[in-house]
Design goal:
The chain is an all-alpha fold and 200 residues long. The chain is 74% helix and 2% strand. The chain has one domain: Heme Oxygenase, Chain A (Up-down Bundle). The protein has 6 helices and 2 strands; from the N terminus they run H-H-H-H-E-E-H-H. Strands 1-2 form a two-stranded antiparallel sheet. The chain is elongated, with a radius of gyration of 19 Å.
Length: 200
């Protein structure tokens, strides 16, 4: 009995989105995520500004905030270069982000750090998958943008986010029901926000 040999399917098939469309989708969600992160940290900084905990956590928050500003600036530069549209939910992420940051820190800054850990946990995972997706694209340059350089830059950002996650983890109490429930809820909401921003 003869064996039928099947040809290996190419990575790209008719009907699949183009590399340019895939890249725009990736960068749209990254831009939204960094924008939201800036708003969250801004809210957290404002919440602890006049509290007794300002010296204890304020410097760390400002350091993370400045890193997120640098991340956002990079994606805004790419937005200008590649002309990808931002998510239509950007104004909503701005308000929700600031409120989440402020509300989570105003009562107990440790809750704010749980929020930070949960969000950064999902972002690290998201960036890891995205770096692999960028490497799988069929072209090296899109509108003059070097795909390898973008992947390398996102990898650097991933290291920053991992550091933020670890800082947040320092403040979460393992057997604290409120901390653990808050972590789970925020992580799930972050996944939803990523999916929405990628598509819309």
């Amino acid at each position: 009995m003869s064996m039928i040999k099947h040809k290996k399917l190419p990575k790209w098939l008719p009907g699949d989105p183009s590399d340019k469309k895939l890249l725009h989708s990736m960068l749209r969600v990254d831009h939204a995520g960094e924008y939201g992160a800036v708003c969250i940290y801004r809210g957290q900084i404002d919440a602890v500004a006049n509290s007794k905990h300002c010296k204890k956590i304020g410097a760390r928050l400002r350091s993370m905030y400045n890193q997120e500003l640098a991340h956002l600036a990079y994606f805004e530069t790419l937005q200008t270069q590649l002309s990808f549209r931002p998510t239509v939910f950007l104004p909503i992420w701005k308000r929700i982000g600031y409120f989440l940051g402020y509300a989570s820190c105003v009562y107990d800054y440790r809750l704010g750090m749980v929020v930070t850990e949960a969000i950064e946990f999902e972002i690290v995972e998201h960036y890891t998958k995205q770096i692999n997706a960028l490497k799988a694209l069929q072209t090296d340059f899109i509108n003059g943008a070097d795909i390898t350089a973008i992947a390398n830059k996102i990898d650097l950002f991933r290291q920053d986010e991992k550091e933020h996650m670890q800082i947040g983890r320092e403040y979460r109490i393992d057997n604290n029901i409120i901390h653990n429930c808050l972590f789970t809820i925020i992580a799930k909401l972050t996944k939803i926000a990523i999916k929405i921003s990628k598509k819309y």
